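Good morning C.,

I know you're traveling, so I'll keep this short. The sequence:
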Amino acid sequence: MTQVPANKPERPRLREPRDEREPGAGVFVPLEQGLLFARLFTRDREGGGYGSSRAAMTAPTEARMIEAMAEQLVPRIQGVSQWPLQAMLYVPRLGRINASVRREQGAWNVELEAEEAHTAAWLPGVRQRLEDGLAGALAQPVHVHLVDVGPA
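The tokens, ready to paste straight into the viewer:
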């Protein structure tokens, strides 16, 4: 028979992972995700909000937004038989843009009117690139005009 010592050394218990939630809080959100959402949903100094300030947009983001506008307009222009074409474009982070398209003197005339102030401020900086993109897709000259809407 083997003798068992009275004070047998126990193996150290494995540490259970600590739950880093505050007492009473329902969900734990890592700091990085919290900062990301804080940046996305706080208003910037220009009043655009949702991370849409001119400085926050990178060149690839602007290129995607211009491409999204062209992708929405080109099929409509090519498939319509009555003019002028009235279209509502939606661009993520910028909102809705009203477009009016006419065919005049061998070129397409596109008028854009932004519903949001930050979008109206963004459009002049990308007008030429949008014009070039539409002209390339339609294989015809395109003139983009911006409707200037004053504050209400």
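Safe travels,
E.
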